[in-house]
Amino acid sequence: MRFVGAVRPRVARAAETVRPRLARVAAAVRPRSALTGRKGSPQVTRPKTWQFTATAATAGLALAAGVATAAGPWDSSGQRTAERDRAVALAASRGTDHGGGRAHAGTPPRGPGAAPPAASVLTGLGGTATAARSAPAAKTLAGVLDPLLKIPALGSRSAAVVDVATGQRLYGTGSADALVPASTTKIATAVAALSAMGADHRLTTRVVYEPDTKEVVLVGGGDPTLTARKEARGLAGLRELAERSAAALAERGVREVTLSYDTTLYKGATTHPIGENPNIAAVTPLMVDEARTDDSVSGPAPRVPDPAADAARKFGDLLTEHGIKVTPPGASKATTRATTLATVSSPPLAALVERMLTHSDNDLAEALARHTALATGKPADFAGGGAAITARLQQLGLPLKGADVKDGSGLDRRDKLTADLLTALLVKAGDPARPELRPALTGLPVAGFTGTLAGRYGDGAAGVVRAKTGTLTGVNTLAGTVVDKDGRLLAFAFLANDTTGPDAAQSALDKAATALAACGCR
Questions:
Q1: How far is CA 477 from the centre of its chain?
Q2: What is the tens place of the pLDDT at every residue in 226-236?
Q3: For residue 133, what pLDDT is reported?
Q4: Are 89 and 111 in contact (CB under 8 A)?
């Protein structure tokens, strides 16, 4: 893929820059964490061969490289492929760094299937890789994080750090306080959807034919990634759907139809409680390219006011290109007498969850909330989606005290989550007994590299922190995983409300995550 080819030069450069940056961060943070009582600088213990020895950066990226196979195929954006290549470059051909020349740091993979020899993070949860080194000491960790998190810029806050291998909470300040989580809500949506439907579930768009009325009905299946672009790139394609539908009609000798569209899969209001906003389209089970009016694939963008009607018009135009005469489309409902002409299906849920988390895709988040409601017998509206997410998390035994889920995206300021719940979600997603939940981890943006963290951590823990961001006016949040200096996989959640400014708050949270990555803290 062109994306991967473009990334590889950056991979080689990144491999040369991550280690010295981490060294600087470690040097800056360690004096604050030296609570051993000894005078002078604490002695640095070099990792041994049974640890994640290629540096914390390599171990962090091994989460994608070593575990992604369990979560599904490489996605169409090339994200995981690029991460794998970068992990290989960082690990070098030997997978360790025992003082060898840095010229090997950019060694490319040996063939397309090569994987980094560094141990997989999640595989090691129950093995010697994580048991050989103890988790950070709570008192030492508090000495590192308290000065960074207890500052006026962060307003009121809820923070927690948990050892993923044991589930033990290592740090907490207001960790049970329910605050506005913003887009970190998507972690809850991801876990609930995967739990309810499974990682292989797909969202299907159908075209049916009503023989009595010669009506063709485009039936929305709740797939906001359905695309009308010429190159579908692994997504469900409206063009393919039209071509196959036209062929099926031609086989029946039908050349002229009444065109309708069906949006009855969802219930209730289509406008999000925040109102019309470039961050989200009207929530309807039928849309193409997330109703964007430009060529963007993520982030805010102008949207068409009626996504379903827009999708139906485009579908009608495509049918016309294939020799089928159609009427202007109108809303309808397919009957049980209708026969299926053609279907197209989305990528598996694992890939959809990863896209949602990596790009903070609000349209996809609301779709997955409604599908979770449908899978659990609840109404497919905003309230039903929130109730379904809550119910699924309760079945997983997660700490829900104080939690209140109003939507799937986190755009609703009435949402409330705790740092304890967010870290518990991440630990549950890393449970070897729950592999279907793994995309909730592999989809997290990689600091300085992918998604909403691509432009952050340029001088810090790039490639090490994997986290979901959250930003609303007066709200800054960050929740994810990090491999610390001793190779422990830690889950963290930092929520700040009533922040004094977005830049200062974001910087403070990034510094806390960077300090966590650089800290052995034993």
A1: 15
A2: 999 999 999 99
A3: 66
A4: no
User: CB–CB of 290/367 below 8 Å?
Assistant: no
> Residue 135 has what pLDDT?
83
Catalytic residue, chosen from 33, 120, 175, 186, is 186
End-to-end CA distance of the chain: 43
Which secondary-structure segment (H or E) carries 190?
Answer: helix 185-197
Any catalytic annotation for residue 183?
yes
Mean pLDDT of 445-449: 95
Given 360, 378, 406, 511, the catalytic residue: 360
Of 33, 183, 346, 409, the active-site residue reads 183
Q: β-strands 339-345, 466-472: how paired? A: unpaired
Q: Is the pLDDT of residue 36 over 90?
A: no
186 assigned to active site: yes
Q: Is the pLDDT of residue 335 over 80?
A: yes
SS3 assignment, position 192: helix
The neighbour count for residue 521, using CB atoms within 10 Å, is 30
298 carries an active-site annotation: no
CA distance 354 to 335: 35
Gap between the Cα atoms of 261 and 218, Å rounded: 5
216 DSSP β-pair partners: 209, 259
